[in-house]
Structure formats: C-alpha cells, structure tokens
Amino acid sequence: MIIKRGLNFSRLIKEASKLIHGRQYIDHYWYLKSNPESLQPIIDNETKIKNSFFEQPQIKEIFNDYYQVSYGRKDGRTHDIPELYDEYEYNGRFAYFDTGNDYQIIERSLKGGDKEVVLDLRKIQFLKQYHATLKLTKLKISDDHKLIAFGIDLLNNEDIVWLMKYIDDDRVFRTKLFDCFDAAFTKDNQYLVYTQYDDKFRPYRLMLHKLGTTQEDDELLFEERDEQFYLDLQQTKDGKYFVLLSQTKQSNEVILIDRDNPKKIQILFSRNENAINLVHHHEEHGLYILTNKNSYDYKVLKQEGDKFVDFYCPQQGEVLQEVDLFHKHLVLYFTKESESFIKVISLEDKEIYNLYIPPTLVYTDHQKNKKNLLRNIYDRVIKNDKSQYFLNKKVENEVLGCTIEPGVNHNYKSDIFQFHLSTPLVYDQVYQYNLQKKQLSKLQDANLTGKVFKREEFICTRYYAPSKDGTEIPITLVHHKGLQKNRQNKLLLHSYGAYGVPQEIPFNIVYLNALEKGWTLAYAHIRGGNERGKDWHRQAIQENKIRSIEDLLGCAAYLITEGYTHPSLLCGLGASAGATTLGAAVNMRPDLWKCAIMLSPFLDVLGSLLDENLPLTKSDYLEFGNPNDKKIFDTILSYSPYENLKSQVYPAIYISAGTGDFRAPLWNVLKYTEKLKQIAVKSQKVEIIGEHPFIIDINDGGHYGGAGAQSVIEERTRYMTFLDYYVGIGNKEITKKNLTQDIDDSIQLADEEDKIQKQ
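-> structure tokens emitted (759 positions)
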C-alpha cells in the first residue's frame, strides 16, 4: 500500500479497503480523490517531466516541424457565409484577442445594406480578464432584433454565465445569469426562459427572467428532480413554442411551452413511453415528431387530429440523425454505415428525393479521377437498398468519411437551406440547396493558407474486421493512395464506442501533416456508437460493455494480420469514454500497441460509479450499469482500466487532462497514472527519455482541452510528436526482419477467457 505524508493512517486503511458484494475491494490511491491537496505535487512533477521531454533537441525538431506546418495552414476565410434571420443577414467575422485566443465578431446587415456589429467580445469590459480562456457558447436574438443574449464559458470549464445587451450598445445589462446552460427570448422580447444547472452541472430547472430585474427575482417554471434526467431547451422553427426536453440517453419527456405565455405548459409525451421524441411544429400541419418509439431507430410521425401517424419510416440501414422543417419541405439528415446523406420530402405531394453531392463539386480544385465513385455508392445504398450495409468488403472513395451538418437555417418559410460538409481531407465547405429548383451549389471553401496539401494523393477506404463474436466492425482508413500492405506503415487507430455517439472522421489540420509524413489514420466504428442505429449502441452497454473492447481488439488484430501495420507501428487513440475502451484494450493486449493516446480519459470507471455524489454517476448507470448490482460490479471490475493495471510491459502512453474537467476529473486520471508508474515493467522496446515512456499533459481547461484554435493545434502537435518519436527514432523494434517476418498466431483476437482478464 502506498502511504503519503500528511494523511491519517487509520482513515487510509478504512477508505482504501471496502467490503462490497461480499468481497474486499481495495483502492490504494483513493486519497487522490479525497485529498485535493495531494494533486498539486503530482501536477508539478508531471509538468516538469513533460517539459523535459519536449525540450530534447530531437523532440523539439519534430514538434517544430509539425507546428510550423500545421499552424501555417490557416483557414483563408475572413468571415462566415451570412445566414438569413427574417430580414437581416447575420454572419461571424474571425478575430483574435491579444492573448492569441480566437473568437468571432458577430455582424449583420439588411439585404444590400451596410454591416453593423452585433457583438464584439473585446468591447465588453467584464470579459477583459478572461480573453485567454473564454468561449462564446450560444447566442440568441430577440424577435424584434433589438436584443441579444449570449453564453460565455469564462474559464473553458463548462461553467457558463449569460449576458444580455441591446444590439446598438456595447454595454451589457447589469444582471448576469449564472449557472445558466441555455436561454431564449419570449415572443414579447420582455423575458428570457433559461435552463439552470445544479452543482453537478446537470441542467435541472427552467427559470423565467424578466429583463431589467435580478436573477434572485426569477420564477421557477419546472424542476427535474430525477438525477438521471437533464433538461434541454429548444424552440420550434415557426416560433410558436419552446420545447423543453427532460431526457436521458434512452427516454425523454416532452413539454410544450407557449412563447406568448411561458407559464402555459403542456406535457406532450411522458417519460413512461420509454422513447426519445423530438418535436417540430408546422403552422398549418401541426406537429411532426422524430421518435424511436416501438423501434430501435428513429422515424417521423405527423399529427392528424389527436393522433400521430407514420409520415416517414427509414429504409433498411438508414439512421436518422436530424430533421429540419420548412414551410413546404422536410429535410432529413441521416447516416448509412456511418456515411452522411440528405433526403428531402415535399409536404405538398410527399415526393421523396435524395440530395446527391458529386465528388467533382467537393474536390473542385484537385479532382483528377473522373469516375463517379460516390454516385455508384449512392445508387447501391440509397436507391436499390439490396443490403443493410455496403455490399462489398472494400469501398474506396475520395468522399468517404464525409460529415454533413445543417446550417442555422432559421427562416422557416425559405426555399433555400445551407449545410456544411467536411471530410478528413476537406475542411468545412458550405453548400446551399434550392428546394424548389432542386439545385445544389457550393458557397464557400476553406482555402487553407501555407504549405499546399495535395489531397488528390490521399484517399479514404472502408474495410470490415471480425470481432470476437463474429460481428463485422467497419474500419475507415485515410491514407496515401500508394499504401502497401507490407506491415511497414505507421498507423493511428481511433475509437469511441459509447453513449450511442458515432466515431466521427473529422478534419484535423495536424493530421494533414501526419499523412504527409507517412501516417495512416484508421477509425474503428465499434459497438457502443450508433453507426448501425440504436441497436449498435445497445449491444455494448452495461453487462455487454466488454463488446466495445473486443471490437477494438478485433480491429487492431485485423489491421496487423492483413499487413496494414505491425505491433511496433500500431498506435491507439481514445478520448473520454473512448479512452475507457482503449485503456482496457491496452491492459488486455499490450503486445498489440506501440503507443496509446488518451485524451481527457475516463479510467477509474468502477471507483467513479460507486460514488453517487459525482456529477455524471447516475446518468452513467444507463451506459455502464450500476455497480450496486453484483453482476454489473463484476463486469466493470473485469475491464475498468484503473483496476486492471498489472505488472507487464506497457506501450508508450500520452495522457492529456484538465484541472477544470468535471466529466473526467483530474484525480481520476492521476490515480491511473500513479498506479501505472508503480506497476509497469520497464520496456526494452523503446528509447526512454526519463524514467518511463509516459507523458501526462495537464492543462488548466475542462473536458474539451484548451481554448482557441492555437491551443488545439499545440495539443495535437504534442501527441503527434510523442507518436513520431516512439514509432520512429525511439523505437528499438524496427528492423526489416521484424516487420516482414510472419505474424505470430497470438496476434489474432483470442477467445480464451484469460484474454479478457475476468476477475
């Protein structure tokens, strides 16, 4: 047992050892959670180790090369494409504080008129001391376009304050709304309704604030007492209702609130229906509901009298993600095998048509391959629907992995809507679609400055890897077109697999340079996400959470045995709950990995879920299960990364953590790292700088890293530098013989019980 000075010995013995479900549960590092003062010496020491690592000349050279190229590739745009709000066009203009933190100046104009500034955060006196860390979270505009309310995350730790002001005045109102998650104006522009969060950052109250009064005078409209439920405030596009959702990941209660009279509240759907319902209101047709009631995945219902009838049921394999309602059309955003698509339905004649995005439009400047590959995929998957998933085992396409997100599209009666498209090789293109003319046009491209990235040399490819139970797991690869299956490729495998959130394949400015340096980027679409719908999520929760880990191990084994990489070149990356999966996989099969990157990781799963006072514990029971149930306790104990650290050689590990992170608190990370350093066997496979090949990168931010684009680039540059060192000049395993010899049978995903390390 590790004893630290200044701690009460008898309390240490009592707290470190507990009898749970008839067995002794021992946590030697419990004091890091119970005694915050014990964290600072560790923070100081880990920061010293990190700085020493990055000050080494060979490391500094790698870092500078990544950073200079990546930071030089700035977005060449100076402003956003304007979005139409009633008669005004609003847009953001890119700007920087003196601290280097970036933000947007919000502007507007009447059509064809001069620009006027709506909000410039630099001009607000109250915010000057926070320029290095603040983020604008949301902005709301009153119906008369005279007032704005906006949320500011002052310290980049998700603790948000809302400010209000007249558009033509830089001075904010004296009253500030604290602990406010979201807000919106009533129709008469005299009030704000807002959701307020508790000391666990759970939005649980709906409040009514009269402009010009104090927050203490605000009126309570609704309170959610069940700690598994949290509130989400929305507004129908036609402006008639607020929609208050009291929800978990599995069900919600839907409350309609009249924007003319916010005290008039109507429960539309009860939580007892055990479904998720999202509401859209049409001024003539009534309500349209996106629901997963009586099915695994979402469908659209339409109100007819006092009943709701099916309006659109998805085709096989379609996963509806979002619905946007216009006066004459319904726009559906959906995925199929994690690929994004758009479908439009006419409300007049119910004609359904698919919006096709040609690769030649996406790759205007660099498209050389004139074969219409996306069209082929589109015809096969969207039109014919002969299979739930892609019919072939390998799909190559330069637009594979695209992410489509709707624009603001505020104007309900518009015949035009905007959406944003990104791929691993293309950053935030803005498109416009004319619903009446069925015409698509690209409005804006990123036009990156700096070193030219030759995206025509790279491609996205889709493969399928068998998991332990035989389920085929999709893997998306981003790589050079000349990739050879010779086991000599540096490969970074990303995964998440939790909360029904899909593994996205985002654009990453630092990854462009990584691709140029010979890296292959892989994304495992493991169970626990929703790539194949809600059932894909349900298959890997609670007592079946182990499947996410088995899926990841199956993907790693596939990439190795197929020759895409080698254990001495394979690295893994997981963030938040994705690091739970990666941490468990590293414990079970450390031999598969050269490095592991864990960002804001959730590593002490069992210890966290045994403490109901933590912010996310009760809501996390739906994902991981409640360890007060013995079966769930045993399941979590079998894979929780912290509990399953053991005396063995570990890969090089880079971990980032924030002192202001309430989702994956710093003590949760440092318990893991302190135990890891005590128990890990020294590796002979890497050239270690310092005592061990572990770097703990601690910042002052919250769960999502540093504030501003520069901080994000710096963090990504640090972990790519770490990877480049340990798979390159610090890698003692790389010889031609090692890389080309037959892969040992042990690399295959084992099905023996001892590989899962059940306790």
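Residues 708-727 form the longest helix (20 residues).
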